[in-house]
Design a protein that fits this description.
Length: about 280
Amino acid sequence: MHWNVGRVKITKIVELETIGSTRFILPQAGNEEIRKLRWLIPRFATPEGRLKMSIHALVVETPTRRIVVDTGLGNDKQGRAIPAWNDRHGPFLEDLTAAGFPPDSIDTVLCTHLHVDHIGWNTRLVAGRWVPTFEKARYLFGANEYAYWRDHSTAPDKAAIFSDSVAPIIEAGRADLLASDARICEEITLIPTPGHSPGHMSLHVRSAGEEGLLTGDVAHHPCQMAHLDWSSTADSDPAQSAATRRELFSRFADRPVLVIGGHFDAGHIQRDGEAFKFTVAGH
Ligand SMILES: [Zn+2]
């Protein structure tokens, strides 16, 4: 699945797709509430009102760079709080390669934030050691985000996540720590979008007069465009995350900007009364 923004091509590589299980991540998004948002169905929710979500990486190709944005869960990881995220043996790298992107062809890895489902494939297990999966890539982490998790990964699951998916990149000398508004290349600039995590960042893509926005986890699901105050249980600062949603969606609404989420497909943001709705790209 891919989209173009000017001369930039964006390809989604899915690691895991889920339907439902919303009480865990978005407790307010009950089936009945979701069924009221008709525009979500069928692309973003089932007729019964269950949310469709995915864990995926986005490969962003510019004329000069080949960037992987967010790296999913990874294989062989242990100590995750969600049992199904432990000891995975999925075909993500094979799928990435089959799509035309062997790991050694990637020059940049960019993590919108350092949560478990965005950094897993940063590393893979080789002979009992965690090594960088993308051996020729520089890994770009937000400096604020990195500093936060370096100092706050004390709970056992957080410690495991940091030590198998972040620390090995730092130790291998492959990481660059960035300001949250850094320019990555001619076509891509970061936008600071705190709230889901302290140093969360989104990507603004501009090429040949066209625009795209990779939101990361500013919203986990488009239902949060209609209900800006529906914060996820994973948000570090729910009030800030709601404020960030209003600010970011206001900036990009009612314009031909291709928007792709950290866990949902591409569309366009439209104003809808006091809030917003999301319409599928190309429709
Ligand atoms: Zn996420």
